[in-house]
Amino acid sequence: MRLILGSGSPRRRELLATLGVTPDAITPPDIDETPKKAETPRVYCERIAFEKAQAIEAGPEDIVLCADTTVALGRRILGKPADAGEAAEFLVSLGGRRHSVITAVVVRKGDHIWRRTSESAVKMKRLSDDELNAYLASCDWQGKAGGYAIQGPAGAFIPWIQGSYTGIVGLPLAETAALLQAAGLPLWRQE
Predict the structure, then answer these.
(1) Catalytic residue status for 68
(2) Which of 24, 68, 83, 140 is catalytic?
(3) What does DSSP assign to residue 18?
(4) Which of 82, 95, 109, 170 is paired with 132 by a 20 to 30 Å CA distance?
(5) Residue 51 in 3-state DSSP?
């Protein structure tokens, strides 16, 4: 039995390590992540995680783990910003408001699929021009849904969360542990 992580995210690898799990292979899937017309953020996130899991080639006893994290401001999906201008737009939109961070996790073993979704509420403070410009210059926004990562410098902009911190980072551990155990993968195993 091999564990295949369908993600190139170093944060997801670090979070898995806290469960005592090291992937046997890391295979980021190449899928189209464009939202469908009128698709809600939660439905979008769950669809993308499922499509990622389906796109990974695996043997019948291999366990595939995929996740997708989406930042939602109401019904608006804030994906990974294309450039600093879009990152600034996202951060200004989020400032002083609550938003949702949704992470869908899918585990596949053969024809069996297990799914869980974590949804957390996050409040970001309004950023001053100096804070916004310094954060954009750090380039920490690159490749991050909503243009920020709570575990990085942007954590200083987040005075309040309700839900799963690890879900906001990108892999909710309680849900992931339950899914991996359901698929028969022992956690906290000794190598």
Answers:
(1) yes
(2) 68
(3) H
(4) 170
(5) helix
